[in-house]
Write a structure and sequence with these properties.
Blueprint (H helix, E strand, L loop, with lengths): L1 H5 L4 E6 L5 H14 L4 E5 L6 H5 L8 E4 L2 E5 L2 H19 L5 H11 L5 H17 L5 E8 H39 L6 H6 L9 H29 L5 E8 L2 H16 L4 E9 L6 H20 L5 E5 L8 H11 L5
Parallel strand pairs: 1-5, 1-6, 2-4, 2-5, 6-7, 7-8
Antiparallel strand pairs: 3-4
Length: 339
């Protein structure tokens, strides 16, 4: 079932509680897809990156080659946020009068640590990665942050799209209001309408400059709205995108999985299946038999709360997954899941 989920889709998100093996499953699925001839990129959006640790080689914010047909990258949240704010700042300074540039800098410094700034920057990078992968990769596999971060990330395209639509409506009203003021006051630099528009510096050049500014603001907002709308449509298209939730058969991961499933369902993201990782072996007696019985109780809760959702179980391995050979061995296991 796991390899079937990958087949035909362009984007796969792998998420779940921290420590359940998301990176291992994401990497193994990406490698399995690459071995089937699909050019694949595996992307970590988790601030606590494990991709490099898993593959036992440096993986950073630039794309690196991991295996035949498979590349990888770890999105650096700090660098992504810095670049995002720098781009926003450059745009705002270009559009605002020079005497307000200091206020722009103060605003962006405060925004750096504000709630949502990091998520917005990462969302932009996710959208950018998917756009740049077009034609270069057949499949992009996202190894996501723990559940809370991921559910917020999945809901952001809807929120950002609605927010941008609101800004465009305000831009419409602002343009009409500005045109009315200019019609009343002409090009007089002492006109109160010019003061309201905050453009005294450029007033000697009249409405042309303000018109160009309005057009550029509209162009930027429209471009962002288009990007978020396309991303939202992609995330909600089960023919192109799927989400796999990875968990272990323990109480907290099971409860967190049920909650994450509900959050993803509300945002319209298709959960193609649940991957129960690190299942204790059956019929071996002793401690592991007791452990297996406990796991069965937790999984029973999962089956009752999420009936009909496909579940795949992967076995507890005898050694850590480290290095390309170990990832390749795990990719083989995906085709023969545990019972």
């Amino acid at each position: 079932m796991l390899l079937d989920v990958v087949e035909g889709r362009r984007v796969l998100f792998v998420g779940g509680k921290g420590g359940v093996g998301k990176t291992s499953v994401a990497s193994a699925l990406a490698l399995a897809a690459a071995r089937r001839g699909r050019r694949t990129l595996v992307v970590s959006t988790d601030p606590a990156h494990n991709l490099g640790h898993l593959w036992d080689r440096p993986v950073g914010d630039e794309i690196v080659h991991l295996a035949e047909g498979l590349d990888g990258v770890e999105i650096d949240p700090a660098r992504t946020t810095d670049e995002h704010l720098a781009a926003v700042g450059a745009t705002m300074r270009r559009l605002m009068p020079e005497h307000l540039h200091g206020e722009v800098t103060k605003h962006l410094d405060l925004a750096r640590d504000s709630p949502g700034t990091h998520e917005a920057a990462v969302l932009e990078r996710v959208a950018e990665t998917i756009e740049e992968a077009e034609g270069r990769y057949d499949l992009v596999v996202f190894d996501t942050a723990p559940s809370g971060h991921t559910s917020r990330l999945m809901s952001l395209p809807e929120t950002m799209s609605a927010w941008t639509e609101g800004l465009l409506r305000r831009q419409d009203r602002s343009e009409k209001f500005g045109a009315a003021l200019r019609g009343l006051g002409g090009h007089d630099p002492d006109d109160p309408g010019v003061s309201v528009l905050g453009d005294r510096e450029g007033s000697t050049r009249g409405p042309d400059r303000r018109g160009r500014r309005d057009q550029e603001i509209r162009r930027i907002l429209t471009r962002r709205q288009t990007r978020f709308t396309r991303l939202r449509e992609l995330l909600q298209d089960e023919q192109r995108t799927a989400f796999l939730i990875v968990l272990t058969a323990e109480r907290l991961p099971v409860l967190e999985t049920i909650e994450l499933y509900a959050q993803l369902e509300r945002t319209g993201v298709d959960v193609a299946g649940l991957v129960v990782n690190k299942r204790s072996p059956a019929d071996v007696g002793g401690f592991l038999e007791s452990r297996r019985a406990q796991e069965e109780e937790h999984l029973e809760v999962l089956y009752q709360r999420l009936p009909g959702v496909p579940v795949v179980q992967l076995p507890l391995l005898g050694a850590d997954i480290v290095g390309a050979d170990a990832v390749a061995d795990f990719a083989e296991v995906l085709g023969t899941p545990a019972g």
